[in-house]
Amino acid sequence: MLWLSDVVVALYVSALVVLFAFGVHGLVMLYFYHRTRDVAVAPPERPLEPLPVVTVQLPIYNEVYVVERLIDAVVRLDYPRDKLEIQVLDDSTDETQEVARRQVEHYRRQGYDIHYIHRAERTGYKAGALREGLTRARGEFIAIFDADFIPNPDFLRKTIPYFADPRVGMVQTRWEHLNENYSLLTRAQALALDGHFVIEQQVRYKAGFFINFNGTAGIWRRTCIEDAGNWHSDTLAEDLDLSYRAQLRGWKFVFLHDVTSPAELPADINALKSQQFRWTKGAIEAAKKLLPAVWRASLPLRTKLECTVHLTSNIVFPFIVLVAVLNLPMVLIKNLVGGYDELFTAMSVFVLASVSTFLFYLYSQRSIHQDWQQRVLLFPLFMAGSMGLAINNTKAVLEALIGKRSEFLRTPKYRIVSTSDDWRTRKYARTRLRASVVIELLLGAYFLVGIAVSLYFVELAAIPFQVMFLIGFGGIGYLSFVHWLEATRAHTDSHTPVPNARAMTAAPATSATK
Predict the structure, then answer these.
(1) By three-state DSSP, how is residue 89 classified?
(2) Taking each helix axis from N to C terminus, what angle separates 301-312 and 269-296, rounded to the nearest 10 degrees?
(3) Omega into 50 within 30° of 0, i.e. cis?
(4) Parallel/antiparallel/unpaired status of strands 141-144 and 218-221
(5) Which residues contact 313 (CB under 8 A, 6 or more apart)?
(6) What radius of gyration, in Å, describes the C-alpha atoms of the chain?
(7) Is 91 one of the catalytic residues?
(8) How far apart are CA 141 and CA 132, in angstroms?
(9) Torsion-angle region of residue 62: left (phi > 0), alpha (psi -120 to 50) or beta?
(10) Which are the contacts of 159, defined by CB distance < 8 A and separation ≥ 6?
């Protein structure tokens, strides 16, 4: 059986090496963060005059709870009315059509240049809707907002000036979070997104690496979209795909750390899983499509390496599952087989990856929050939750690698802002249980056994990780089951009527980060 031990050890160490490489990349990001933090981000001195025509595209699909809020916010944009066009790109199949059409007509009667465009078939999904809208748009610049966003009135005033530089093809703003304090789940999501925007996006922009349009809360130069080949629907990450194709064509992207766009975070774990699945699978699909072009391009080696890490970072999820599952066999091998003492000692270096990840999120919180000390206390729970999503996201990675196509499943939006709001009664709440939940719960039980075995052999160093695996996989599985059960009961007990959106109490469009 020694050969089996060798195989287990080899798989475990190989998985750790992969996770270590991506984890330590956080230190690279922090290096460039400190090196570039004093780099000023200011628009060109020569203003863009006269102000250009801007088309704001609002791609929606079954968004009955938030579509009115979105349209109301967009018409409040501080921009000359004769230079502003609004397109409501509605692929909905439910009463969202009626709500959106009524709202559009309401503002058309007031003189706004706003159009309702409905497609009977979702050909190309979001990318298809944006592409069709572009054929009808009159704007030289195209701003895009998803249904869960509430753009600030000064969005265009703060982004348009950067296009005075003719090389700029896209400007992306940082997301804020309307309902960050709704639950531990939303707080953990806010922590993750802050890390992406505050460190990754800001560092990549300032250091001269490729950045990506985040699908919303950004504005494009129309000629940039067209020059890069327009929107493609052959991946689930149409935003990442177009971003790279544009930058490979030589267009410059800008990220504005200090310009923010508030949005609503998913309050339901199963909605979050759908979002994470799409993001993960789309990124791997984009990597397969774009990496050959990146390495053929005349780019600095450091840019090519950073692009590779950027596009492939989601590949870590299968390795997280592998490390988690093999942790218990490694404890048994160490105590029952032996012969790997030096290797076990050397593996302590892999702890640096965890330290790197902690510092990454610590600096992101310290950069934008005065109470960052309290926020980073959530880090262990956030890490455990990230591990727990690995089953869901591993399926996404594997499907992308084998080329299995899937529908663009949009993230349900419930208009959950205050703690008194209840997503369970909303009509889009998931009432079908995923098979992956059973795997997550079984893994939770497996890690309970692992903790008991580690205690028996006094392997104290293994226990913290096994506890995190237990909380992560078991916790995600349990929460998924509970949220599914609560939504099912709520839908069974009522017909889940759709409330009048104007009658719903909305919190002010400000983020808890302020």
Answers:
(1) strand
(2) 150
(3) yes
(4) antiparallel
(5) 22, 25, 283
(6) 24
(7) yes
(8) 15
(9) left
(10) 143, 171, 173, 219, 256, 259
Note the pTM of the prediction, 2 decimals.
0.92
Q: Which residue has the higher pLDDT, 348 or 76?
A: 76
| Residues in the chain, total | 514
Indicate the pLDDT class of residue 38, thresholds 50, 70 and 90. Answer: confident
**Catalytic residue (choose from 148, 239, 241, 421):** 239
The DSSP string of 360-374 is HHHHHHHHH-TTHHH
Choose the catalytic residue: 90, 91, 194, 241: 91
Measured distance CA(85)–CA(139) in Å, rounded: 7
d(CA 169, CA 219): 9
Q: What share of the chain is helix, strand, coil (3-state, %, to 5)?
A: 60, 10, 30
pLDDT at 3: 83
Residue 67 CA to residue 71 CA, distance in Å, equals 6
> In this predicted model, what pLDDT tens digit does every residue of 211-253 receive, in sequence order?
999 999 999 999 999 999 999 999 999 999 999 999 999 999 9
Please report, for the chain, the start and end positions of each structural domain, with discontinuous segments joined by +: 1-44+159-514
d(CA 238, CA 255) in angstroms, rounded, equals: 18
Helices marked H in 195-315: 202-206, 222-227, 238-248, 269-296, 301-312
Nearest to 130 by CA among 218, 43, 204: 218
Burial status of residue 297 (CB atoms within 10 A of its CB: 0-12, 13-18, 19 or more): middle
Strand partners, 54: 84, 141
Contact 155, 171 (CB under 8 A): no
CA neighbor of 134 nearest in space, from 75, 72, 59: 59
Kindly give the pairing relationship between strand 252-263 and strand 141-144. unpaired
CA distances from 73 to 51, 191, 262, 513 (A): 21, 26, 11, 20
Q: Can you read off the two tokens belonging to residue 344? A: 């076990």
d(CA 317, CA 299): 29
Whole-number percent of the chain with pLDDT over 70: 96
Tokens representing residue 357 in the block: 């990840």
Question: Are the beta carbons of 2 and 333 closer than 8 angstroms?
Answer: no
